[in-house]
Amino acid sequence: MSGVRLEAKVHIVTGAVSAAQNIVKCLKRCGLVASDVVLEQFASSYSILADDEKELGVCMIDIGGGTTDIAIFTDGSIRHTAVIPIAGDQVTNDIAIALRTPTRNAEEIKLKYGCALQDLADTTQMIDIPTVGDRPGRHLSKRALAEVVEARYEELFTLVATEIRRSGLEDLIAAGIVLTGGASKVEGAQELAERVFKMPVRIGAPQHVTGLADVLNNPVYATGVGLLLYGLQQRDGQQETITQPNLKSLWARMKGWFQGGF
Asked: The whole model's pTM is what?
């Protein structure tokens, strides 16, 4: 077989050089050396997605503090990525405004009592709500809190569903949705996601780790554990380790990573 032209469909993710430089500089000031630059969604997938899911087709939704990161895998490779500027911090702000409580208290309330689905909230359970200034605290039912939380999560999942449809890969996600990130731990998030996406949803926690598995088995550490697993794979696959990389070499390694992923 012979040919005169080689074509390929690829998904390219670009980033600002200044942002990469700042990350490398921050690490250097901490006494660390960056050996590579990895896409956040790609790193998280190393720790929470199974190879079968990537082959069959899966959408990973990483709900962090400031952004929600989306990655769609089919045939073992990333086919689409996106970032939505709505995540856990927006839920906290909504709680703070709706309940008229300081932001630090709103975060504690979200983590302890938050529920993304009103149907699962206990109407008899009451929550102590601190107020601003010297005003006395108030009591509020958990269901009332769930109304605030559910509205924001439903908006987020609706935006993600729109992005999936826009990608044109909706019919290829046979393995369903995997939620991860700190904000995915909120009670009822999985059930609400299944209602919005109308497909199977699971919460993804880091896998393939031992020793501290009882601590690391938490969606919060998905990206961190994924970075370690990625670095381990790269170390095993290469005999030489770059000890003093420059930015040019980092971008060259990123290019090689994308070429190897398709």
From this structure: 0.83
